[in-house]
Design a protein that fits this description.
heterodimer, A: mainly beta, 6-stranded mixed β-sheet, 5-stranded antiparallel β-sheet, B: mainly beta, 7-stranded mixed β-sheet
Chain lengths: 111, 115
């Protein structure tokens, strides 16, 4: 079992729809969770961080965390073609203090 | 967040040679890391660059192949030694600025092609 798992996609949504990206993790003591966006040929960009159970909203982005289920998600409302990218889920390992990345989910927003 | 630059942005090298990649930050940071991203893959941590002491390497990465320096709180280098085509990757430095949130920010990356 991988430490951080994501569906590689591609996830295809029409413009204006809600895109839902999911991530599960295996380390029960993890306390910090991050979503990065990576455009093709570019480096990862931190877009959301979440540390407590529940929802955290920032503009069109909402991160959701459920530590009991070891599940973190990212919702993108009113998806735009410019949101088309790979989204990387990252979990700070509770044991090592290092960031563990999932394989990433490719999102395609079609006009 | 800190502004991070990397040099070179890309390079094409011959096998058997070495390349040193520089990472410069515009402010002091508590932690610096080096990652590798192979084509179509996610990020793999190579090592933690420790200021004033030897880097801490992850399993599968060794100092002889990837020597790292961090002489101060704003600068680090990663050398890819005795390169082979399998070393063709994007190499990224990242930083944690401090505080308790452990947010990591990435430099623009160095795209390395080994022929």
């Amino acid at each position: 079992q991988k430490e951080v798992e994501q569906n590689s996609g591609p996830l295809s949504v029409p413009e204006g729809a809600i895109a839902s990206l999911n991530c599960t993790y295996s380390d029960r003591v993890s306390q910090s969770f991050f979503w990065y966006r990576q455009y093709s040929g570019k480096s990862p960009e931190l877009i959301m961080s979440i540390y407590s159970n529940g929802d955290k909203e920032d503009g069109r982005f909402t991160a959701q965390l459920n530590k009991a289920s070891q599940y973190v998600s990212l919702l993108i409302r009113d998806s735009q073609p410019s949101d088309s990218a790979t989204y990387l889920c990252a979990v700070l390992s509770g044991n090592t203090g290092k960031l563990i990345f999932g394989q990433g989910t490719t999102l395609q927003v079609k006009p | 967040s800190a502004v991070i630059s990397q040099k070179p942005s890309r390079d094409i090298c011959q096998r058997g040679t070495s390349l040193t990649i520089q990472c410069q930050v515009d402010s002091q940071v508590t932690m610096m890391f080096w990652y590798r991203q192979q084509p179509g893959q996610s990020l793999t941590l190579i090592a933690t660059a420790n200021q004033g002491s030897e880097a801490t390497y992850e399993s599968g990465f060794v100092i002889d192949k990837f020597p790292i320096s961090r002489p101060n709180l704003t600068f680090s280098t990663l050398t890819v030694s005795n390169m082979s085509p399998e070393d063709s990757s994007i190499y990224l430095c990242s930083v944690v600025q401090g505080g308790s949130y452990n947010e990591q920010f990435f430099g623009p990356g160095t795209r390395l092609t080994v022929l």
